[in-house]
Design goal:
Keywords: ATP-binding, Chaperone, Nucleotide-binding, Stress response. The chain is an alpha+beta fold. 24% of the residues lie in helices and 29% in strands.
Length: 639
């Protein structure tokens, strides 16, 4: 079977993705998908890398023999001493590359990949790239192509969300060891780099780890810095603290505070650290990245207003302060994949499907010779391979949308009444009639009986996840990288297991919903789901029963919407146990508002309450015929 491989040899982590005729997916290099960029001599003298190095005896008892962050040293003539042997950074990277390819080829039947794409920072000049060429040579790889990390990230992004020809995006790539920013313009056959990419060496997750560790050391009166790495007991404590600090930094992207147990030879010590503490520590560094992005935009000869979105890449970009700072500074949509650590590898793998027909592009990285492939085995289409999903992805719209700025949330017009309202409830309608494009071809498969995906680990095209409240009527897009998103009384986050965890504090009203964006599909004609006894289906796990009225809604063009009161439905769910909910669409039809039009749906799923409520949902979709299932909810059981 034909397959291509994209590999991102990062400073902190190494990741790989595989492209096959059926799509592009991450290679599972470890239970965490990625592997640490580490190397250490094994008992027989051979180099261990990745998980084998992290789990080796040296990692806990002799950290001096464990090499980390060697990508930063590429081009440095000083060799790294590991025990009695010395290595160049290129040799350590080559060992890691060789091990990754061995793992993948074993998983795919022992045969080598047809094409290989490697990535490098956009800021690397000729000298660094010449040094990097040693890595595949030492790994025994004679043929490969090289793309920059921002190009790869943008390629994956266009695979998830179609970008228009000529659209300009800024890539903000904050990884484990370096920061890169690049301006890219979408061209028919790839990405064009505009201006001069800029970056900052020694700016990334490793540096944030060191900063946090220094903060902990201060709170412990220097107890960490006085540990002797030559002492076996101290070395073990240092290795544990190193891992603990990295995990704490990552956890603070989802949790507001933590209490860490620091293992010291004198005993365990508890230290409290908050996200605000971390923000204060790294804010000066982040300001440097903002200034670099401004300079990159200027070098491209454009204004910040010309940028349509800022794309986040790199594992460290998940830190919430980054999203907040960029949004405040540039007032542009901030986009991120579900797992930013995977973005570059997935994009690199996507480029392997185009290797047989390289297209000319100004200012692109020139690829080296490509591994020859059998013509009958290569993917012949030049279209971006689809992302593998449980349900079919949305088809791109064939009708050009109107070029208007859409209001995500506007106050509900006075005079609209909804039959099922028991108490006075105000929701925020999601579009105005003057600004909403007409119905588009239905998203997903047009075959009868096919489910319409809305959310399954991430929002399916053309939908986007949003939260709204009285305080934030403009709507806040849900972070796709697992970090917590907050708007008024509502907090949500992707749980990394395919679910969307939602919590209402009860301190006001708020809603969570999925909606189509202008230019990504517009309103959808979903009338056949109503005609075919369809239902809104989703898996729900209750964490906290609702304390007030909960409504579920479907919106089209304001003031068009349909709504049901679903309080009893959610109150009856067993706590902590996943249950598949099947809510018949006819329940909405019975309680439709004025100007109801199922052929112009722009919001297929919305939950609103003004009380406290906690729930995780997954596999949200519309299914034809599901209302006839024996376990479907009866309309008279809702309120």
């Amino acid at each position: 079977m034909w397959y291509g491989v994209g590999i991102d040899l990062g400073t902190s982590f190494t990741s790989a993705a595989v492209a096959t005729p059926t799509g592009v997916r991450m290679a599972t290099l470890s239970p965490d998908i990625v592997v640490p960029s580490m190397a250490t001599p094994g008992p027989d003298g051979t180099l261990l890398t990745g998980l084998a190095a992290a789990n080796s005896r040296n990692a806990t008892t002799n950290p001096a023999l464990l090499a980390r962050g060697f990508k930063r040293r590429l081009g440095d003539p000083t060799r790294l001493m590991l025990g009695g042997a010395s290595y160049t950074p290129a040799a350590l990277m080559a060992a890691q590359l060789r091990d990754v390819l061995t793992h993948i080829s074993t998983a795919y039947g022992g045969g080598p990949p047809a094409t290989i794409t490697l990535t490098c920072p956009a800021i690397w000049g000729p000298y660094r790239r010449e040094q990097f060429a040693e890595v595949p040579r030492l790994a025994g790889i004679p043929h490969y192509q090289l793309v920059t990390e921002p190009e790869a990230a943008a390629t994956h992004y266009t695979n998830e969300r179609r970008l228009g020809n000529g659209e300009i995006i800024a890539v903000y790539d904050l990884g484990g060891g370096t920061f890169d920013t690049t301006i890219l313009r979408v061209q028919p056959h790839g990405m064009e780099i505009l201006g001069t990419p800029e970056g900052i060496e020694h700016m990334g997750g490793i540096d944030f780890d060191d900063t946090l560790r220094a903060h902990l050391d201060d709170k412990l009166d220097g107890a960490i810095s006085t540990l002797d790495p030559e002492d076996p007991t101290h070395a073990t404590a240092l290795a544990t603290i190193h891992t603990l600090t990295t995990h704490a930094k990552e956890q603070l992207s989802a949790e507001p505070d933590l209490t860490l147990t620091i293992p010291l030879p004198t005993g365990n010590h508890e230290v409290y650290v908050s996200r605000q503490d971390l923000n204060n520590m790294i804010r000066p560094s982040l300001q440097l990245t903002i200034e670099a992005l401004h300079r990159t935009i200027t070098s491209a000869g454009i204004h910040a207003d010309d940028v349509s979105a800022i794309l986040l890449a790199g594992g460290s970009s998940r830190i919430p302060l980054i999203h907040q700072t960029l949004s405040h500074e540039f007032n542009k949509p901030i986009r991120a994949a579900l797992h930013p650590k995977h973005t570059v590898a997935l994009g690199a793998a996507t480029t392997t499907t185009r290797a047989a027909k390289p297209q000319p592009s100004n200012n692109r990285v020139t690829p080296t010779e490509i591994i020859p492939v059998t013509p009958t085995e290569i993917i012949t289409t030049t279209a971006t391979p689809p992302t593998i999903r449980t349900f079919p992805p949305a088809l791109p719209s064939t009708t050009p949308p109107k070029k208007t700025r859409k209001k995500w949330l506007i106050p509900l017009a006075a005079g609209i009444t909804v039959i099922t309202v028991v108490a006075a409830i105000t929701t925020y309608v999601t579009a105005s009639s003057a600004e909403t494009p007409g119905p588009e071809p239905i998203a997903g498969s047009t075959q009868p009986g096919e489910p319409l995906p809305v959310f399954d680990g991430m929002a399916a095209k053309p939908w986007v996840g949003l939260i709204g409240s009285e305080q934030g009527r403009t709507g806040t897009e849900i972070w796709t990288n697992g970090a917590q998103t907050k708007e008024g009384p509502v907090t949500v986050r992707l749980d990394g297991m395919g679910g969307l965890k939602m919590n209402w504090s009860g301190q006001g009203s708020g809603q969570v919903y999925f909606q189509s964006q202008p230019g990504s599909g517009g309103n959808q004609d979903l009338s056949r789901y109503f005609d075919d006894n369809g239902a809104i289906v989703f898996d729900a796990t209750l964490h906290r029963p609702p304390s007030s009225t909960v409504s579920m809604e479907v919106h089209c063009t304001s003031p068009c919407r349909a709504k049901v009161t679903a309080t009893n439905l959610f109150k009856r769910l067993p706590a902590g146990k996943p249950v598949t909910v099947k809510l018949p669409l006819r329940c909405f039809v019975e309680n439709r508002a004025e100007q109801w039009d199922p052929a112009a749906i722009n919001t297929p799923w919305l939950v609103y309450t003004d009380g406290s409520f906690g729930m995780t949902v997954s596999k949200v979709r519309w299914e034809a015929g599901a209302a006839n299932d024996p376990d479907a909810t009866r309309c008279d059981q809702l309120s």
